[in-house]
Amino acid sequence: MQINNVKGTHDIIGEEANGFAYIENLLKQISELFAYNEVRPPVIEHSELFVRSVGEASDVVRKEMYTFNDKANRSITLRPEFTAGIIRLLVQNKTLLTNELPYKAYYCGPVFRYERPQLGRYRQFNQFGVEAVGFDSPEIDVEVIALAYTMLQSLNLEKVVLKINTLGDEQSRTAYKEALKKYFEPYLSDMCDDCQSRYDLNPLRILDCKVPTDRDLVKDAPRMKDFLSEKAQSRFEYVLALLDSLEIPYQVDDTLVRGLDYYSETVFEFHYISKGGNNYGAIGAGGHYDKLVKELDGPDVAGVGFSFGIERLFSVLKDDDLLRYILNDYLDYYVMPLGLAAREMALTVATELRLAGFRTDLCFEEAKLNSMFKRAERKMAKFAVIIGEDEINRREVIIKNLETKQQKTVALDKLVETINSDLGEYCEDCSCE
Ligand code: AMP
After folding, report:
1. Average pLDDT, the chain
2. CA pair distance 309, 283, nearest whole angstrom
3. Ligand 1 atom closest to residue 113's alpha carbon, by position in its atom list
4. In a mutational test of the pocket of ligand 1, which residue from 64, 82, 114, 121 has the highest number of ligand atoms less than 8 Å from its CB?
5. Which pLDDT belongs to residue 346?
6. pLDDT digits (tens, 9 = 90+) for 175-209
7. What is the CB-side half-sphere exposure of residue 384 using CA atoms within 13 A?
8. Each residue's pLDDT tens digit, 277-326
9. How far is the CA of 280 from the centre of ligand 1 (A)?
10. How close is the Cα of 78 to the center of ligand 1, in Å?
């Protein structure tokens, strides 16, 4: 029987592979501009890392982790998210958190969650994100949001909506959790099993419940904003003022709590509805964390980060037709040797063009000129390079602009030099001289 891919996974091939490479490269470049450096933590970690950070009450830890015992009977988990691994990495490599702070890291790679597969929801999917770790500052929260926003702008995702909220400081959250417990207590026996344990472990998680009857109860539950300490309230107002000064539009959403337990103070999500009206929900999300580093036995310092789902970014870009120019396979040059003798020269020419930075392919098969032109068209080549017997003898090639149909003979030993200096003449829509 044929072996297929595991449920909830997908092969990234064809235009999706091109799209992923484009998205990841762009996000890496922008992260570098903001002075972030790449880190690559392992895919497997000790399970305890996620129990202690993401939290026992979270759906991720309760139901979604790929956990197994290795041959030495250690409990190992395939990472369900990156932040915990990155904080573990920073705590373990002690010097990283004693040098210049915040330590700014970006990451990219697969994560694993045993969720119910559906449109846009996989069991293995890819995330790109950043963490800025080392001290508590509302300005860093805003810088991180600005980085995410710049990334989305660079991808031309204009219809993105930034939703933001605060979970307050520890004092605010303790007061809020107590109020939630008081509110839910009379209904508890009618609530779902998950919410009954969330009630004890972390009542904030009840606000994320998807069960319709519990969701109805959540509608009238107390709101975080009414339990904020004065300090937490003014910190949040300052964050919003900084966003205003950077002209980053946002919507305050006081129902936003995020599904991972380590967040405190600022939390945010980027939502997207495509031009055609398809609602993609959150394409990226993140927030500030006060206690996570200490919880993982590091110094008592705060951090902030976010993560984008690459599959989601790809889907919205495709839906809004923003990948057309990137996904179209094209060639700068298609080299067409006429006859066996021309093939050797064709290889030399193709190599020279590639080394000069031009995407080049060549015809290896014995074919007539007309059918080679058809191939060049199918491959969306901008130029054809024709090498016949005369050209071999004269050490020349013919370069034909396949759009304007103009052609020119160029000496082989001046090929790249001539192409570079004549680019304007060859290429109509090119602005170079
Ligand atoms: P989270 O780590 O849960 O905050 O998720 C960050 C981002 O990852 C989300 O905004 C989604 O874009 C993406 N994401 C989360 N879960 C999945 C999934 N099961 N399949 C695909 N993308 C996901």
Report:
1. 92
2. 6
3. 19
4. 121
5. 96
6. 999 999 999 999 999 999 989 988 998 898 898 88
7. 25
8. 999 999 999 999 999 999 999 999 999 999 999 999 999 999 999 887 67
9. 11
10. 15
pLDDT in tens, 42-59: 999 999 999 999 988 888
How is domain 14-169+229-324 classified at the CATH fold level? BirA Bifunctional Protein; domain 2 (3.30.930)
d(CA 275, CA 333): 36
Listing DSSP states for 172-237 in one string gives HHHHHHHHHHHHHGGGGGGS-HHHHHHHHH-GGGGGG---HHHHHHHHTS--GGGG--HHHHHHHH
Q: Which residues' Cβ are closer than 6 Å to ligand 1?
A: 81, 113, 115, 121-122, 125, 127, 259, 282-285, 307-309, 311-312
Question: Ligand 1 test: best mutation among 53, 78, 208, 307, most atoms within 8 Å of CB?
Answer: 307
Which atom of ligand 1 approaches the CA of 282 most closely? Answer: 10
Residue ranges matching CATH 3.40.50.800 in the chain: 329-426
Q: Which of 127, 131, 269 to mutate for ligand 1's pocket (most ligand atoms within 8 Å of CB)?
A: 127
For the CA of 281, the closest atom of ligand 1 is 10
Phi, psi of 225 (to 5 degrees): -60, -25
Asked whether the beta carbons of 361 and 389 are under 8 A apart, the reply is: no
Of the candidates 225, 227, 178, which has an alpha carbon nearest to the alpha carbon of residue 199? 178
In this model, does residue 431 exceed pLDDT 80?
no
Q: How far apart, in whole angstroms, are the C-alpha atoms of residue 188 and residue 314?
A: 41
How much of the chain exceeds pLDDT 70, in percent? 97
Q: What is the CATH number of domain 329-426?
A: 3.40.50.800
In the chain, ranges of CATH 3.30.930.10 domains: 14-169+229-324
Report whether 308 contacts 151 (CB < 8 A).
yes
Q: Which atom of ligand 1 is nearest to the CA of 121?
A: 20
Nearest CA to ligand 1 atom 22: 309
